[in-house]
Amino acid sequence: MGVVSEGKGYSGFVRCMCWCCCLLLLVIIISGGFAYYIYSAEDPKPPVYDIQSFTVNTLDLEDDSTLKTEFVVIFKIENPNEKIGFVYGEKNNVSLLFDDDIISSGQLPAYKQGPANTTVLEVALAGTCPDESSTFQDIVQNGKEKGVGIEFVVKMMVPMKFYVGNVGDVARKEVIASISCGLVMKNLVSGKTATILEKECEELVKF
């Protein structure tokens, strides 16, 4: 009667597992190397931000001299890269500043942007802040009467990763995109869309 050697069977199983692990590792290395090659060869460019519209939902001075603000901002975000996409994280921040003070804030939705893609996003901003001397309200009222613009700054800090082509799971390390958009607007009236007189956005991303 024949005898089956357990040692040989176990050895064969281990050898098979080792080959599978090595093959899997090789695939990962090749995929990662290809992604890095494309990433380096493409010289990735940061996304380009633009503010399309700015709607004032609420702009009120409460009885306790607290300024209450609610805005809706439409952003257009362009990815200029032909082969590189971006994954934007949910832990981002969008702030509206007047005279270096944050008067409203919100977040961009987390999403994936494909190569050579343009995405339009609607972002709600809200906030309360003290305006005891009614300085902001006075400036807004003065702007209405004289038809002059008021300067604001929209600042964004957005975590992002990149991926190559349509392979969403080849994301590399996370970087932080810092975006600053200067705005000059008039007609800041609750329930209406403000008139944007001037706008300019600067993007800073260190890949």
Mean pLDDT: 83
Radius of gyration: 26 Å
Q: Count the strands?
A: 11
Strand content: over 45%
SS element count, helices? 2
Shape: elongated
Structural class: alpha+beta
Question: Can you walk me through this structure?
Answer:
The protein is of the alpha+beta class and 207 residues long. The protein has 2 helices and 11 strands, in the order αβββββββαββββ. The strands form 2 sheets. Strands 3, 4, 5, 6, 8, 9 and 11 form a 7-stranded antiparallel beta sheet that branches. Strands 7-2-1-10 form a 4-stranded antiparallel beta sheet, with no helix packed on it. A hairpin with a 4-residue loop joins β1 and β2.
List keywords for this structure.
transmembrane; single chain; membrane; 11 strands; four-stranded antiparallel sheet; seven-stranded antiparallel sheet; transmembrane helix; alpha+beta; 2 helices; 207 residues; disordered N terminus
Short characterization:
The chain has 207 residues and is of the alpha+beta class. The chain has helices at 6-42, 135-146; strands spanning 48-61, 66-78, 84-88, 93-98, 101-106, 111-113, 118-130, 150-164, 175-186, 192-193, 195-205. The strands form two sheets. Strands 3, 4, 5, 6, 8, 9 and 11 form a seven-stranded antiparallel β-sheet that branches. Strands 7-2-1-10 form a four-stranded antiparallel β-sheet, with no helix packed on it.
